[in-house]
Amino acid sequence: MKNQASLIAQLVCLLLGLSMLAAQAQGIKATSIQRTAKKLTVTVNPPSGPTGTAVKVTVKGAHPGEILSITIATGSYNVTADRNGTVTFPETMNGSVGQTILIKVQGSSNGPPYRKGTGRFKITSAVLRNNLTNRQGPQIRQGVQLQQTPTTLRRQ
């Protein structure tokens, strides 16, 4: 009888130990899932252009209402994701020709390591060309209309 009681006590301890190991394994599994959470997707539209270009930055993959920290060369600020986990905001890209401007986004939920995402904008030229000169059409100077042709200017 004494041996049976000892054997039962050992079995109970073994079962308790196994259940504790199983709980720890589940906790480790949950932690590893949290650490491999999906990244935030940052889209810059258009992805390149001259300095001074106004772009639309879209961040997807955030949790609804999550506060996101945005860092750009001009500074950093916080924005809140909408109910779909998306944030869209305008930004003006200024820089030197050939420079790539990074837009870094970091989420605030789920604790470290935080979910992150990066978008890029490439500066392609120094001047924003929005029909600054209209070489094809007529020009008006001091009340006289001039017609521009490829070789000469004629008075009409």
Give a quick precis of the structure.
With 156 residues, the protein is α+β, with helices and mostly antiparallel strands.
Please give the CATH class of the largest domain. Answer: Mainly Beta
Name the average pLDDT.
Answer: 73
Number of strands: 11
Rg on CA atoms, Å:
31 Å
Order of helices and strands: HEEEEEEEEEEE
Give me the secondary-structure category.
alpha+beta
- The name of the CATH superfamily of the largest domain reads Neocarzinostatin-like
Number of helices: 1
* Beginning-to-end CA distance, first to last residue: 124 Å
> How would the global form be characterised?
elongated
Indicate the low-confidence ranges by residue numbers: 28-36, 133-154
Oligomer: single chain
Number of separate structural domains: 2
* Helical percentage: 10-25%
Question: Within the largest sheet, what's the order of strands?
Answer: 2-8-7-4-5
Largest sheet: 5 strands, mixed
CATH topology category name of the largest domain: Immunoglobulin-like
CATH architecture assignment name of the largest domain: Sandwich
Proportion of β residues? 35-45%
Question: What is the strand and helix layout of this fold?
Answer:
Blueprint: H1 2-35, E1 41-45, E2 48-49, E3 53-60, E4 67-72, E5 75-80, E6 87-93, E7 100-107, E8 116-123, E9 139-141, E10 144-148, E11 153-155
Parallel strand pairs: 2-8
Antiparallel strand pairs: 1-3, 3-6, 4-5, 4-7, 7-8, 9-10, 10-11
